[in-house]
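Hi U.,

Before I forget, here's the chain from the pilot set. I'm dumping it here mostly so it's searchable later in email.
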Amino acid sequence: MTTIGYLGPKGTFTKLAVDTAFNQEATRGFKTIPECIDAVDKNEIEIGVVPLENAIEGTVQLTVDYLVHQVRLPVAAELIVPIQQHLLVRSDFEGDLSDISEVHSHSHAIAQCHQYLHQHLPEANMVFTTSTGKAAELVSESRESIAAIGNKLAAREYGLRIFKENIHDYPNNHTRFLVLSKNEELVKINHPIQVTKTTLLITLPSDQAGALHQILSAFSWRKMNLSKIESRPTKTGLGNYFFLIDVDQPYDDVLFPGVKAELESLGCKVTILGTYPVYPLNI
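Structure:
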């Protein structure tokens, strides 16, 4: 049976994405994103699912940097999951908001609920954890008047009560997750495909005026739609960057080789990170 790794423990949004996308596969939680990616690379698991980007908080930089600088793995699919954050307390908690001394959660989850926390829990200390699931686990084991921010799966897994639903600041919040696997045939997701995209990693030549404009022009005149472009440091010195570009179409034998050849003639280095389907999940 295929084993699917995810950012754990139980109750995280990554686990929620895995449970929704895959049917009755064996799963294994990991404490950190690098541990999950390493497990796929070392063939300890067949598939890994890690968060990539949140609509409110932006890119999960650890995921991007680790995949670019440490372990290169094929991207087999992308999952888009709606994010609903709730304030979770122990089932025997009988106090009110003013009694909560600490709120535990992942830094992204706390940031997504900033306005609610600012208005209703201004005196509570914010405590960052490695995941929303870990926060729920900590609250379930504590006898203090503390709370967690997490989803309904976390509440169910750890026997917590939802004290307040939907405390996130923006209603249209989603997170993108990457599905990583060396064997794409093992990735079987029975959901409608929104689009098939291709992701490229492009390193610019140093000190060349207009290089970024020339890169974008290579896609523009071919009428290739870019859904995202993001720069990240190459970690080789100040001012040195690479670009991640998402193109909303599958890799082909005409347009993409043409772009690659044109950019390489300008001194750019071009790497295709993957061409893969995107699945929006109804949760």
